[in-house]
Structures
1.
Amino acid sequence: MNLLESIVPFDSYATAMAQDVLGWLGMSVKVQNLDRLPPSGPLLIVCNHRSFLDPFLLTSFLKTPINFVCHRYMGNVPVLREVLQTCGGFPLSNSDWYPDLLHHSTELFDRGKTIGIFPEGAAPMLDTPAPGVLRPFYRGFAHLALQAKVVNLQILPVAIFSQAEMQWPAVPLSVLHRLDPLEPLFKQDGWHPAVLYREIAIRIGTPISIAPYSEHYHGRQAGTVVKDLTATLSRQVADLLVA
């Protein structure tokens, strides 16, 4: 399956789909600092992740279409794949996924689009931390932002803080392992939990320009720049969670 095989071309439909998914759940949602959301792209949203509802929440309540980078296994689940793609999501395709991700993300950024990514990876989805606790960030989003080489790209830290929720076992990990044998977290016994929010706050941070980091992203400095950018975004999301 191609990475952007079925991203919906009609942005308004993606937002409407997300709102429909959430409409019947009856959640209490407060959005803080919506005025910090840049009026136009290109934009990379970096957010914590604890529920399958997170992409729908951000697309709906930030009132902007967001193309989310999703886990590989989601591209192998027929119904889930179509729902995610309808909302603008694109699952990573295979073990050699980064070149495709960089290529297609650059295309979206060049068109002024917004991409969302959850740098904690799959870990908080399997072993859900307490609200307010942030898992370490992977550095892939920082490499993506710097290597895309898109003028005026900004990164926006966002936090979803759960104030009340329900959890229950949803899918055996053995099933997910069959869908994605490459994911080491699925090579264990147990269940993938589902988190259903009852009350949350979506907290928006201050956009960060990628330009000052891009100036030094070369040679031996590249690793340090990526490390610094990752630490900066991790710290900002963590601060939003305890705000």
Note: The two ends are 41 Å apart (CA to CA).
2.
Amino acid sequence: MTRLSVNINKIATLRNSRGGNNPNVVKTALDCESFGAQGITVHPRPDERHIRYQDVLDLKEVVGTEFNIEGNPTEKKFIELVLLAKPAQVTLVPDALGAITSNAGWDTITHRERLTDLVGIFKEAGIRVSVFVDPDEKMVEGAKICGADRVELYTEPYAADYPENPAKAVEAYVKAAKVAHEIGLGLNAGHDLSLENLRYLKEQIPYLDEVSIGHALICDALYYGLENTIQMYLRELQ
């Protein structure tokens, strides 16, 4: 079974645009779970332009499914936050400071020493570690050497190329996924996955453990409603 983890960053963006606490991030997370989501993902950034550090601490008290915190582990505050929250999973993402959204995976060879140290810190705290990588077999192998439990494949290129040629778009992902499967890494995927392209990815990579979806899912919820939208995404994964 491929689990659906809903990234609620966009809920926090909407809240922050007006001030106050509407929409309520914690209530939305609980609603997502009650509607069938099997995980909640947040990606706090240093400027707290969407998810705030306090949100993470509030969520850790109530999330009953799998809590996943994404972010750049070069920030000391991020490391401290994760160790305090102790989520089920931390996903290490090489965000550039001020980046609008994640736009590349780790070079797990160049940054092997640093990643190995970080993975060790989180695993010692009992937190499963996933490393965000491009669909490159060597980067997947590098994540294994660093001690990671999983990799999350960066799927924006897949989403961009899917409308023109689905088979070509998914080719590198299938190869990277097979390597991960063969060397004993769990497999996640995320970024620009949608109702349009999710089913095909799942069909080509049947042993996908988890997908993390935020932007497209929240956009769809504006039209279909949050409960219905989550059910629609779950059906794409069945």
Note: The mean pLDDT is 95.
3.
Amino acid sequence: MVAVTPLLAAALVHGVARETLHLAATGLALFSLDDLAIDIIFFARAGWRRCTIYRVNNRSVAATLRRDSAAAMAILVPAWDESAVIGAMLRDLINRLDYPSYRVFVGVYPNDPETREAVATVTDPRIITVDCDRPGPTTKADCLNHLWRALVAEEMRGGERFKAVVLHDAEDVVDPRELRVFDHLIGRLAMVQLPVLPLVDPASRWVSGHYLDEFAEAHGKDMVVREALGAAVPSAGVACAIDRDMLGRIADLAGGKPFDPNCLTEDYEIGIKIKALGGRGALVRIAGDAGGGVVATREHFPATIDTALRQKTRWLLGIAFGGWDRLGWGGGWADRFMLMRDRKVIVAALLTLFGYAAMALVLLDTLLAAIIPGAAKFTPLVAPGSLLAATLMFTTSVLVWRLVMRAGFTASVHGWREGLRAVPRVVVGNLINALAAWRATFRYLAIRRGRAELTWDKTAHRFPGVE
């Protein structure tokens, strides 16, 4: 039996650190190529539009949109276990909206009387309570299908056909001008997605705060590039309007259910279905008035690690795993490219964790080389001029670029202080995403083996001003 001496232990750590560093550097380099492609396309598009379109046309603002026509709009709000916020949200919505013709359909469950009672406290004829058939929680898509049927019944009863179906959640702070934007664009577009802006939570700068950074970059850049490439633009599930006729076509093809009740991310899939039927979706950034902020939906996001993990696990389970099973790899090259980006998140999150492990091993190796005699004579982990040295230089440059991009997009939406916080928050976001990817993988395997079921695993919601 060979005795494990300090020098032998240091040699073992040195070898493991070298191999781990090789694998992490190569994987991160490969996984960063598509991100760089997205950045190049975004800046090329922005430069071209600035030199052409916006040289001769002023940017539109919502305040100047036509007000002489206002087609009826239907707003769908699924509500399972939302008694704490739904009343405040509905009162805020009807007080905010600057639009004359809309109905709000709120879906409630027979085993959730508290939510039904909270909805009933808002006495407005434009609010229609819809009872789901089965006890909750089912899936959000199932609740939305009940709301769709109620919408069709309301059209038959009132004789007025809605122009668009607008999706919102029970915690949304709705922009006053959003329905005017939807009325202006639906018809030319089959789906209009407005930006989603997480509200700053001073009590959760790091966990809730990392959503600020992710949404700023996703809705400021990634969704824009999807549209530019002609790929399907997924709905965010809130602040989204779908052409009523398009949603009717989807419902007709699915036996009257436009949202698949066996899907955890029905919002993501509906954008892909619209593209498959020839419809065009777009994320629209339009200022409310000259010099003002964009028309967007604002909401609180999870403030604890546990709730963030639950939400991210549901997203990854529905988009990466469920999407692969249900949607395959259809569409043109742009759609497949974006599907690859959506689904690589599972591996990328775990690879990032692997990269942190490599960094820890390198630091440990450096420490052992300094304190154990003879360890400093080991072959360098990174030989000058080697392929690994070049790969690490590339990944380091990409990391710096990614941090600059993240900070810049966050600062453009939430101010320079949040932009600076976005840099260290990357670590928090990466750890949460890695743990969520791990959970999603095991839950997916459990569902495939029949050991778990699809349910509406929602997190508790908050609304501004409501404890």
Note: The mean pLDDT is 91.
4.
Amino acid sequence: MKSFTFKKIDAFATNNSDGNPAGYISLNSFNDINDNEMLKIASQLRGYVNEVGYITKSDNRKYTLRYFSAEREVEFCGHATIAIMYDIIKNDKELINTYEINITTNKGQLIVQNRIKEENAVFIMSPIPKFNKTQIPIEKIAEVLKIKISDINIKPEIINAGLETLIISINSLETILSMKPNLEELREFCFGYNIDIIEVFCNEVESSDTAYRTRVFAPKFGYLEDPATGSGNSALGYYLLNHKRWDGNIISIEQNGFKDRYNVVKLKTQVDSNDVNRVLFGGGAVTRIEGKYNLL
């Protein structure tokens, strides 16, 4: 039997919402566990957390992360990164006063900004975006989401800011909240078009403090909806920048299918060392469970 330090942490939670649950396992080394074991743990936690993040520390300000859903390894998981790095920074006497920490993921090296004291949040610089030119018929998208073609504002786009994300502009909050797609139909659609997640959004919001409402569907990872996501909303950020619908200053995004019990994901931009304007996603987290995970 192997035993690991384990926490269940809800990322992007607010006083009025549950956030997005992530499992968090701290390792001395990735030699302590193999890929099958990481997948087995994530599979055992299906329905309890959406993804499990595994992390090792190379020195005081550098960490390596990998992510698994119940179905497979995930290239990048924004909410698990928020959950893990918020917890690590908040509970380390040196890191709590450190502004930037480096992490390595399957998407390369990324920067974590510590804003816990100022905003009760950490911000993660999303991977450099890739823009997919694949065109998916709007009729097919409307059919699989079980909405009308007229509910879609403009031509959808696919952007990868960690995950291959289909971005769809919807004309009303009512339409977004009423969506009830079928898990298996949506899963087949995503595999067929090589899409990781589908993000729908509109500029009609519940709160005057937020800029957009989103919902994210992620059937390839073994569940229908992701209640709060970093990579998806980062892709949305790049979409908004390209369409001149955001100036890059900090904004808050409402996310999930509940009218007034939404999670909050923050977005901002920063020019990186290569002079590329990058989207950062941010938020806080709440630890729900901590202890030992025994893998038989």
Note: The longest strand covers residues 285-295.
